[in-house]
Amino acid sequence: MVEREKAGKLDIRLKGESFLEGLKIIQKKNGIQNWILTAKRADISDDGNEANLTDIEMEVKNKGITIFAEKGLYNLNTKKISVEGPITAKGNAYSITTEQVEIDNDAGLLTTGKAVHIEGKKFTLQGKGMEINNNEQKVRIMKDVQATFYN
């Protein structure tokens, strides 16, 4: 059963072993799409606050990045997403792989404490832990950084 509550919050209550198939979440800010998340399956928690997602693809519209992950957890209250891997984020000129990422859209942050591998056309970079600040257009690898640059 899906209904809309007075405050505009979507109330999802699935009884028994029900689940959603082919879920699409579109996140907008000031009427402009920030990202579109699609999942093949979403199992909603009993309290309706979280959705366990399977086979995830998340397109970050204004950044030209698409994130692919096996599974994740979407908190319907905070709008935070935790994805687990293997995870690959692909942009036009690079790809990032890791095992786990926390996404806080309101803060514009993507973080992980796991090993990270970034590969571009003329470089490879690896390390442990990463913080991407979309608002400031910064990527920081936290420790054990190794980089190789090619001509």
Tag the structure with descriptive keywords.
151 residues, 71% strand, mainly beta, nine-stranded antiparallel beta sheet, 0% helix, disordered N terminus, two-stranded antiparallel sheet
Extended strand count: 11
User: Main β-sheet, in a few words?
Assistant: 9 strands, antiparallel
Low-confidence stretches: 1-8
Structural category: mainly beta
Order of strands across the widest beta sheet?
A: 3-4-5-6-7-8-9-10-11
Distance between the termini: 58 Å
Q: Can you tell me the overall shape?
A: globular
Report the sheet-strand fraction: over 45%
Order of helices and strands: EEEEEEEEEEE
**Radius of gyration, rounded?**
17 Å
Give the averaged pLDDT, no decimals: 85
What is the number of helical segments per DSSP (H or I, 4+ residues)? 0
What percentage of residues falls in helices of 4 or more residues? under 10%
